Each structure stands twice: as structure tokens, then as C-alpha cells.
């Protein structure tokens, strides 16, 4: 189950604590919470979804450092939540795709300002750098996490 938690205070944690036994598993999508919230969600054996919104501030980045790779889901939330140039995580992005304004349709380019699934590589690059691990290690862990949560054969 994808769980959306945005500006809920303690309500989300309390609801999950009360109802955790009613779902087989889940990922807290687009996580932007505190270290304390992270620990409470991990204690409930939930996965943590990381995208550009999860990397907007230095405080967010510090929290992402503490997410175990066995609980990370890399995501984009397209068409939103890209890693913007103003993000402190942007310095870690190595892969850039050509983009054009939507009025200049080009099948070989992204639409400027619209996040796309292919930008998951940028989240991977940033999170691996932030955590000080190899991109391949994080990619493998995220893949296996997805297989586990969604009951897919690796």
C-alpha cells in the first residue's frame, strides 16, 4: 500500500499504529518527516519512499542518511517532486536529460518542468552520494525492496 503523509503531525503515525495489522505492508510515499517520525515508521516495518521532495532541505538530507537501504524505495512522483537546481541534493545529480517547453514537442526530449520516471536515476545518484554508498548497491537494495513489498520474484 502507498501511504501519503503530508503535514499530518502525529495523526498519520497514530493511525498507522492503530491500523498497522490491517495492511500487509506499505511504503510511506515522498517522505519528508523528521528523524523521530522515520524511526517510528521503521519500527512499524514500513518502507520509506524517497524522491526530490525528500531531498529539498539539508534537514531532509540528514534524515535520508538514516534510512536503512533495506527500507528505501526510490521514486519520482512524476510529474512532481523533481530534484530542482535549488535543492542541496542537486550537486549529486550526474544524469541530465534534454528538455524543451511543451509547446516544442520533441519525442527525444522531456517536457521542461515535468518530472518523469526516467529521473529515478537522479534520485538514485543523490541518495547514494548522501549515504556514501555505491549506486549499484542502492539500486540492488531498492529493487529487492520492491520485490519484497509487492511480492514479486527477483
Secondary structure layout plus pairing:
Elements: E1 2-4, H1 11-19, E2 27-29, H2 35-43, E3 47-50, H3 58-65, E4 72-74, E5 99-100, E6 110-111, H4 120-131, H5 135-149
Helix pairs in contact: 4-5
Core attributes:
154 residues; alpha/beta; TIM Barrel; two-stranded parallel sheet; 5 helices; 11% strand; metal ion binding; hydrolase; 3'-5'-DNA exonuclease activity; metal-binding
Explained architecture:
InterPro entries: DNase_TatD-rel_CS, Metal_Hydrolase, TatD-like, TatD-type_Hydrolase. One of its GO terms (cellular component) is cytosol. The protein contains five helices and six strands; from the N terminus they run βαβαβαβββαα. α4 (120-131) packs across α5 (135-149). The chain has helices at residues 11-19, 35-43, 58-65, 120-131, 135-149; strands at 2-4, 27-29, 47-50, 72-74, 99-100, 110-111. The radius of gyration is 16 Å and the shape is globular. The chain has one domain (2-149): Metal-dependent hydrolases (TIM Barrel), CATH 3.20.20. The model has no long low-confidence stretch (mean pLDDT 95). α1 links the parallel β1 and β2. By secondary structure, it is of the alpha/beta class. The strands form two sheets. The chain has a four-stranded parallel beta sheet with strand order 1-2-3-4. A two-stranded parallel sheet has the order 5-6.
